[in-house]
Design a protein that fits this description.
The chain is an alpha/beta fold and 282 residues long. It folds into 2 domains: 172 residues, HUPs (Rossmann fold), CATH 3.40.50.620; 95 residues, 2-Layer Sandwich (Pantoate--beta-alanine Ligase, Chain: A,domain 2). Helix content is 40%, strand content 20%. The strands form 2 sheets. A 6-stranded parallel beta sheet has the order 1-4-3-2-5-6, sandwiched between helices. Strands 7-8-9 form a 3-stranded antiparallel beta sheet, covered by helices on one side. Helix 7 packs across helix 8 and helix 10 packs antiparallel against helix 11. The longest helix has 16 residues. The structure holds adenosine monophosphate. Adenosine monophosphate binds next to helix 2 and strand 5. The site of adenosine monophosphate has 17 residues, from helix 2 and strand 5. This is Pantothenate synthetase. One of its GO terms (molecular function) is ATP binding. InterPro entries: Pantoate_ligase, Pantoate_ligase_C, Rossmann-like_a/b/a_fold.
């Protein structure tokens, strides 16, 4: 596995692959790998001739009071894991090489970014779209792989690619979980043992929502309220950011569960802000 640190080096390796007629898959990440990241890299390995993993804690997607400085990092371990999983190229740029001091161009999808996580993280998805677009323009991959854990991010990237005719196939992959149901996240390391013990109730609340929908409940507000009540009891160390039921593609609020709907939530638990989601099928 080759490791490169500059946009120019990334562009030149990928251009050479294209000249050779090879397909490529890009897996954008912020590092501190867990089995969720591994599943994306493994999928990429199975889907293309060459696999590029980017490892970049992107400053522009963090708000002023968020955890940019504290975000967990372990470059050596991540690089070894990416190599063992069969990545061909690891792209680990310094922030200065991704953003010039006078950086001024942004990619935004406001219609999908103003809801769910966007309410408490107003600049987050602008930073995500911009860095992902930059990675796409440097790599020009055949496909790019994202986790369904960040469902809103995936929906926004799909919309960005459709509306701007970006020639990259976007693939979403299922959420990887701990044995007790907690969705794997680099931020789970922030949890105290007490908080960690309560955190799996997020998953349990979503399974309950799916059961209610499958059992015939059509009223989205009732399902959301049931999730809220459950979490107030089961996760007293946490505090709701949002519990919402939305259209899986447009992320618009849903009142009646007709076709599939997405139940998504964010909860603040100590220093961590945890997100999870589930598709509700009537
Ligand atoms: P991050 O490093 O947290 O920015 O995540 C990089 C990619 O891994 C994103 O596409 C995430 O959606 C995905 N990801 C993070 N956690 C999980 C998980 N538990 N299961 C599947 N994919 C995940």
């Amino acid at each position: 596995m080759q490791i490169v640190h500059t946009p120019e080096a990334l562009r030149s390796v990928c251009a050479e692959w294209r000249r050779e007629g090879l397909t490529s898959a890009l897996v954008p990440t912020m590092g501190y790998y867990h089995a969720g990241h591994a599943s994306l890299i493994e999928y990429a390995r199975s889907a293309a001739d060459r696999v590029v993993v980017s490892l970049f804690v992107n400053p522009t997607q963090f708000g002023p009071n968020e955890d940019l400085e504290a975000y967990p990092r372990d470059f050596e371990r991540d690089a070894a894991l990416a190599r063992d999983l069969g990545a061909d190229l690891l792209y680990a740029p310094a922030p200065e090489s991704m953003y010039a001091p006078d950086h001024a161009a942004w990619v935004e999808v406001p219609a999908l970014a103003g809801t769910l996580c966007g309410v408490s993280r107003p600049i987050h998805f602008r930073g995500v779209c911009t860095v992902v677009m930059k990675l796409f323009m440097l790599t020009l991959p055949t496909l790019a792989v994202f986790g369904e854990k960040d469902w809103q991010q995936l929906a926004i990237i799909k919309k960005m690619v459709t509306d701007l005719n970006v020639p990259v196939r976007i693939e979403g992959r299922p959420i990887v979980r701990e044995a007790d149901g907690l969705a794997l996240s680099s931020r789970n390391v922030y949890l105290t043992p007490e908080e960690r013990a309560q955190a799996p109730s997020l998953r349990r609340s979503l399974l309950m929502a799916a059961e209610l929908a499958a059992g015939g409940e059509r009223d989205a507000a009732k399902i959301a309220e049931a999730v809220r009540t459950f979490l107030r009891e089961q996760l007293p160390l946490g505090e709701e950011d949002y519990i919402s039921i939305v259209d899986p593609d447009t992320l618009a609020g849903v009142e009646r569960i007709g076709q599939a709907a997405l139940c998504a939530l964010a909860y603040r638990v100590g220093k961590a802000r945890l997100i999870d989601n589930i598709l509700l099928r009537p």
